[in-house]
Write the structure tokens for this entry.
Amino acid sequence: MFEAVISFKNGQIYQQENLVLDNVNLSIKQTEFVYLIGKTGSGKSSFLKTLYAELPIKEGYANIAGFDLNNLSDEDIPYLRRKLGIVFQDFKLLNDRSVKQNLLFVLKATGWRDKEKINQRIDEVLSKVGMQSKRDKMPFELSGGEQQRIAIARALLNDTDLILADEPTGNLDPATSIEIMNVLKEIHLSGKAILMATHDYPLILKYPQRTLKCEDGKIFEIIHPKSNR
């Protein structure tokens, strides 16, 4: 039986004093790829921020990657985040550093010290996203799709349990979006759970997976019509 990597029971998610999502009840297993959809302002980003402890959970129960969010101390937050890989729409790469230096920065910040192991890990994650030849390039020398591949590699550095992808194809053209989806699919098949917030409905229909929707202060599961792929 696969364990849940995300578990909520009667959760309430707030932005400051404003209740954004009420009565959140859901479970995502280690084997799942799940989409999170909803209009702008529906609570998608607030939900993701709760998962990586940028927003506190005030009521109900939540457990993420083995961490109890109800009793999470400030000292525990970095350890939780090492269990999570986060991929953003705008890449968030450091533009004054090479690809290798971007990845090195994250590894050093999360406690890696052995140079040989660091170089080996950088090679491993770049290989997974097909970017080994770009390790010495600067971010501005890369296309948007290549930058997003580096952002995905960064999310894999600490052998995370869960990838949180926040609109990872939002700044990409359709062909590049498909390339990124194929990378995410391969990562999922290697044993990572993925929760992907997206507005890209054609992509959801092309790559159907379990889908959660934020609407009217709730999160609920929806069923897609079968696509003719």
